[in-house]
Design goal:
By secondary structure, the chain is an all-alpha fold. About 65% of the residues lie in helices and about 0% in strands. The mean pLDDT is about 80.
Length: about 130
């Protein structure tokens, strides 16, 4: 984004004196702490839950940000925003409680056969083979 803004000529319109200490502190906080927490949470999700549930992370984060902005920074929280947040959270709940498609499908005969034999542990050996276990 910085490169695109620089190419578009935005650097010429940027006035560093107009940047307040509060906004600079907020930017630093977002870059350092929020990024670390978000990345750590994402990493934990990837290791412990299904991809469908990990994807919900992208939907929940903006809702949390809006609620925190409203609570901590007195940003507006209108009925329209509340309705949108409710719809998003309801969608995430539906994704979370729904059973995964693999659990609803019955295994095919080929996949059931491949799961029942473990190579090297009692698998049949061809006659005359020297690779006996």
């Amino acid at each position: 984004m910085f490169t695109v803004g620089a190419i578009a000529g935005d650097l010429g319109r940027f006035d560093p004196a107009a940047v307040s200490a509060r906004s600079l502190g907020a930017f630093a906080y977002l870059v350092v702490f929020v990024s670390i927490v978000a990345f750590t949470a994402y990493g934990l999700l990837v290791r412990h839950v299904s991809p469908a549930r990990v994807a919900t992370y992208a939907f929940v984060n903006p809702v949390v940000a809006v609620i925190l902005g409203s609570t901590l920074a007195d940003e507006p929280f209108s009925p329209r925003i509340a309705l949108a947040a409710t719809v998003i959270v309801a969608g995430v709940v539906l994704i979370s409680v729904a059973s995964p498609p693999a659990a609803r499908r019955r295994p095919t005969q080929a996949s059931a056969a491949s799961e029942s034999s473990t190579p090297g542990l009692g698998a049949p050996v061809a006659a005359g083979s020297t690779d006996a276990p």
